[in-house]
Amino acid sequence: MRKRARIIYNPTSGREALAHDLVEILGIFEQAGYETSTYATTPAPNSAADEARRCAKDGFELLVAAGGDGTINQVVNGIAGLKRRPRMAIIPAGTTNDYARALRIPRNDPVAAAKVVLKNQTVNMDIGQAGEQYFINIAAGGLLTELTYDVPSQLKSIFGYAAYLAKGAELLPRVKPVQMDLKYDGGHFTGKASMFFLALTNSVGGFEQIVPDASLDDGKFTMIIVKTSNVAKMLHLMTLVLNGGKHINDPSIIYVKTRKVVARALDNRLMINIDGEYGGDAPMTFRDLKQHIEMYADTDRIPDDAITDPELQNAERNFVSAVDQLPEAKADSETE
């Protein structure tokens, strides 16, 4: 039987440029060896996640998330908790498209993005778990992160991450430190901070220098704690970010790698941002799930230090595939 792929697309993402390319995109995935069908998400809660989970349980080999980072997040949430997870591909059609930027997938041409599958290059990507939710790019807490909730969707669609910058500059004078307690591998921070965030890739809000040494598959978050809320100091930190990621050496920054974080508020509410959306309040535990989902990517263009040896990944993948074919493994999967 031919392998099956399902394109789960958001018909209202970004500039709505995807729909008229669908026929050509279907042909590209057919050329790659996938019998391909489509599903348009609906306004119903968890529409993309529910469809992704259904397809995974039905044995589809590939899920294609076509939309913004929110669509990718939903598809990942649909399959991350399953033992058998299909491969994923991405066709960006949102505004900032951080995840596509990290995977070096074309962000302004859906057809070119689809053609990445023809290179047959993949990365076994880390994803994050926050309570019962999963995330693909960032989790954060603190008053500074609330700017993402206040940017109108129409403004984001027109101006992309520039809208976040404008809103962030407006919000800075109102930022106050939050008393928080953060436990992480080998460390413990207790005190005032304007924000903390955990990154899985090097692309955050359209910037690639906030987390300049991020790895996509090492099993560790990059955690940044911003201990200052002084406006002048915050502006200085932004300057250091734009000047080659030099903020990571600033004394008002804690910059560490960690597999797990436990976050608690010590006085006021600590809202948690999951991939740009409100994800609940602390206390919350975050875990990095190492190499959890295999994603098509243009690995020729990803920096060498951002992923482990592709040949080693292929060897690991072939081993897992061979184990899955053993009678004992098949019997185990049938009883799930």
UniProtKB/TrEMBL annotation:
Cofactor(s) the record lists: Mg(2+)
E.C. code: 2.7.1.107
Naturally occurring in which organism (per UniProt): Lactiplantibacillus nangangensis
The protein's enzyme class: transferase
Domain DAGKc, first and last residues per copy: 1-134
Assigned protein family: Belongs to the diacylglycerol/lipid kinase family.
Any GO molecular function: ATP-dependent diacylglycerol kinase activity
Alphabetic keyword roster: ATP-binding, Kinase, Lipid biosynthesis, Lipid metabolism, Magnesium, Metal-binding, Nucleotide-binding, Phospholipid biosynthesis, Phospholipid metabolism, Transferase
The protein's name: Diacylglycerol kinase
UniProt keyword rRNA-binding present: no
